[in-house]
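Worked Example 4.2. Consider the chain below.
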Amino acid sequence: MKALLSVYDKKGIVEFGQILSNAGYGLVSTGGTFRELDSNNIGVTQVSELTGSPEILDGRVKTLHPMIHGGILARRDICGHISELRENNIQEIDVVVVNLYPFVDTVSNPDVDLSDALENIDIGGPTMIRSAAKNFRDVIIIVDPSDYEWIGTRISQGDVLSELEKKKLAQKAFQHVANYDTAISNWLRTDSLLSEKIITAGYEKISDLRYGENPHQKAAVYKGSLSSGGVVEALQLHGLPMSYTNFLDADAAWNTVSDFNSQACVIVKHTNPCGISVNKDQVTAYENAFSGDTVSAYGGIVGFNRELGVETATAMKGVLFDIIIAPSFEREALKILTRRKRTRILQVSPAVGPTSDVMFKTVSGGALIQTLDGRDEDQSSWKVVSKRSPSDLEWNDMVFAWQCVRHIKSNTIVLAKDGTLVGMGAGQPNRVVSVHLALRIAGDSSKGSALASDAFMPFADNIDMAAAGGITSVIQPGGSIRDSEVIEAANKYGMSVVFTGMRHFNH
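Applying the procedure from the previous section yields the following structure tokens:
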């Protein structure tokens, strides 16, 4: 019996090698793995001795040899295969233990050059893994050090792994190689992901979650193989474990607040921002965001795009939040916030990676992929279509409202004044209801506010209702066959109206 061991991650390999040796396996190994085993007094043969060929091309060619792959791929139930092995003096290899060069770790260094990256693309390793996994009925393939313990116990006891167990190991092996190849492909890509005819997604499990959106649903959280940052890799400084919906809500809060260049505070409930405000003073930004909808804010998620200061932490006292999220926290602020027993406190950095500019949504039978709703919209293309042009204050409110609108579910109506969201209607089957909800939430604050609509207004009744609520300016994409009627209604009420030519549906 022979076992071939060639691993980059050497965690546990000495102990597992000893188990194999004690069970009567002859060990064959390469380079660093050979030295690791040999230095621990475990009998091992170099691959070059088995093949009769030296390692060449700076180690690029070590195991690509019939003595290796013949021993792995030969089917034990085919007499002709065994005869060929004997004719060519090739010995069967019964266990293959391989994990791969750290390509992801290498290219995660922003200063890595092309030569270093290419040298960390493993060739022999994936080939051995695929060979052993293909022949899993005769060969045990191990790519995960966490499997050493249970397999080692079985081997020590003289037990034979079942075909199902070996099949599961083979599946894990092919997945290991697929994820590796996906990382390489993503790193080499120079065009948008959407330019690819075929795509693969590489994700690594971080942890299982208690359940999904409902207790009867299973769930887990994964990170992209070449990605970093974002809520998936948030540093949780305090609080209860994150749930499925916590991740969704935290992501909505972080993406929204990160969209603003000015200091901002966002409060989210069920993935919809119910409070948004920008202000040079963080406490004021928080208080204004909270005032946007104090009822919905209860038990919500509050996010900041600047370090959270002690004064803000103090101002938040007495308000229940499930999650508080920021890029960093002042030490004294963190002391105040950690007095909340249940609240999750997350420190987050921007997400980067090959899929950071696209979003995926699964549908029955497949997936939809689209680029993110653009943050570089050209305001020079906006057109004032009303008789009255907006004042400077109205322009500011419209720009802010338009930035808010793309983070809220359609049909979206946003009311904004003085850099604060004062009313919002979302997720309704028609726009009039969204206007009604936004006005109801805003109350008297709607007077003098700007209204943003994520898509065109199909009828003038939206304008009639907005005017009744004291709204003085409207920003929307335009494009309805009844645009002239909408503009005429706005002119009747003395409103200023801007068409952006771009919609921001968010389903």
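The domain at 380-499 is CATH 3.40.140.20 (Cytidine Deaminase; domain 2). The first helix runs from residue 13 to 22. Compare this with Example 4.1 before moving on.
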